[in-house]
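Onboarding guide, step 5: your first structure request.
Type a short instruction followed by the sequence, for example:

Predict the 3D structure of this protein.
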Amino acid sequence: MRKLAAILLLFMFVTWNGQPAGAQPKDVNYDEAKVPSYTLPDPLRMQDGATVADPETWRTRRRPELLRLFEEHVYGRSPQPAEKIRFQVTSVDPQALGGKATRKEVTVFLTGKRDGPKMDLLLYLPNGVSKPAPAFLGLNFYGNHCVQADRGIKLSKQWMRPTKEMGVVNFHATEASRGCHASLWQVEMVLQRGYALATAYYGDLEPDFPQGWKMGLRGALSDDGDRTVFKPDDWGAIGAWAWSLSRAMDYLEQDRAIDAKHVAVIGHSRLGKTALWAGAQDERFALVISNDSGEGGASLARRRFGERIHHLIRAFPHWFCGRYAEYDEKEYALPVDTHELIALMAPRPVYVASASEDLWADPRGEFLAAKYAQPVYQLFGLPGLGVDDMPPHNRPVGDSIGYHLRAGKHDVTAFDWKQYLDFADRHFQHGPGAKQRP
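The system replies with C-alpha cells like these:
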C-alpha cells in the first residue's frame, strides 16, 4: 500500500506531457528574446577535431562516436538482446474491424524465458493486400486496447498511471479504456493506405515511475535486481522502451505478412524521445517519426526555451542515465545536442513534427534541430530539410528530413498521420503518394 500511495502522490503533480499540474514552473522561458546565444556542436567534426568529409567516415567513425556520447551522457547503455527471443502468437482474427484487417496478438518473451519479462504486441494487417505490407510500429500509453474500441483485443492487466478519463481505476485498465486513444492511432486510415500497424504498451516493459525499474525490464536484466546505486551511464526507462521496440522489430522480421525492409518507428511525447533513440541505435527502422517529443527528444537543449533538462530530471529522473543530471543549468556543456540525434538516422528518412500551442516542447527548437541535422544528409547527397525558415501552420516541408508545425495542442491527430503516411509513401515507394513531393 505504501508503494501505491507513493506512486499516486508522484502522478498527482504531473500531467500528460511532463508539465507540473496547475501553475507553470516559474523558471520557464516562453520569450524568444530571452533565449541566450548558443553554439551547437558540429555533427561533422570528430572529438579529436578531424572533419568528416565522406559517408564512409561518418559510418565507421563519427556515427559510432555520437552513439557512444548519447549513451554515456543522455540515455545510457543498452544491453545486447538475449540470444533466443521467443514469440508466441496468442490470437488471430482474419475478419477484424468488419473485415478490413487481420488482427494478430503476439507475446514477445524478452529474455526467451516464460517467467521473464514479456510484451504483448498487437498487429493490424490490411486485408486485400497481395504482398507483404509496410508497417508503422510504436509504443502506446494505455495498453493495446487503447488504440481501437475492438473487444477482441486483450485488455492489459499491467500497472497504469491513474487516469479516470482513460478508464484507469486503481492503477489498472477497465473496459472503459477501450479505444481511449484511438484518435492518436488512426488505425483505419493506416490500413486504408495499405500499411500494417504494430503496437505494444510501454508499461509492459517498465512502469513509468522512478522505482518502476524494479518491476520491469531493467530490473530483470540487472546483475543485482535490488541495487539502489546505478552507474552514471546505466540505461534509463527510455533506453528500455527503445530496446523493446527493437525486439518488436525482431518479430516483424520473421512475420511474412510484414515488409520488414519498410518499417517506420513512431512515437509521441516521451515515446517520441523513445522512437528517436530506437531509430538512432537500430538501423533496421527504415523511417523514424518524432511527434511533439520536446526536451530530451527533438528540441535543442541549448535553446533554453520551454521544458529544460532540470524540469525533466526532477519530474522523471528514471527516463535518462544518471549522468544526464550533470547538465542541469549546464546544457552548454553537453557534448551533443539533438540535431546530432536526428542526424544519426542518416541516410534514412526522418520526420519531426511540432504543435503550435505546445510551447513546452519548443516547436522552434524541434525545427532547428531538424534543420541543423541537414549537413549529414548532404554528405550522402540527400537534400535533407531543404528550407531555412520555419514553415507556417499545417504546411509540411522537407525531403529526406520532414517537418510540420500543426496548429493545436500536444497531441497526435489525423492531420499528423496523413503527413506521416504521405512521407512514408514517398520514401517507401508505396501507394498513390509514392512520387509526390511537398
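Each response can be followed by summary notes, for example: Residues 40-82+131-148+176-428 form a domain with the Rossmann fold fold (CATH 3.40.50.1820).
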